[in-house]
Amino acid sequence: MLLIPCPFCGEREESEFHQGGEAHIERPKNPDKLSDAEWADYLFLRDNKKGLYLERWVHRHGCRRWFNVARDTATNEIKTVYKMGAKPPRGLTKGRAK
Ligand SMILES: [Zn+2]
User: Fold this and answer.
1) What pLDDT score was predicted for residue 95?
2) Which bin fits 24, alpha (ψ -120 to 50), beta or left (φ > 0)?
3) How far is residue 22's CA from residue 76's CA, in Å, rounded to a whole number?
């Protein structure tokens, strides 16, 4: 069983949470100037890498608040959690590799 440390409630079972996808996806500043392929990339394409991944989670059966998780997708080890709007802790890379 995976235990997730909610930054607001403390450690809880994974079944109380919902994974919300990759973190730190920025909305394009001028979406009207993007090609269809660039817009589709923004909307639909996400990394699916093995290893450290920065993602969003919501504590839906608890405080119902969103936060970020740095998790190793191979081992499920959670390196850290941090609040929405915060930058990833030093030493952790952004979730999306270009
Ligand atoms: Zn919570």
Assistant:
1) 47
2) left
3) 15
CA of 53 to the centre of ligand 1 (A): 21
- Ligand 1 centroid – CA 19 distance (Å): 13
Classify domain 3-83 by CATH architecture.
2-Layer Sandwich (3.30)
Q: What is the pLDDT of residues 24-33, one digit of tens each?
A: 999 999 999 9
Give residue 76 CA to ligand 1 midpoint distance, Å. 19
Token duo for residue 1: 């069983």
Taking the centre of ligand 1 as the mean of its atom positions, its distance from the CA of residue 67, in whole angstroms, is: 9
How do the domains of the chain map onto residue ranges? 3-83
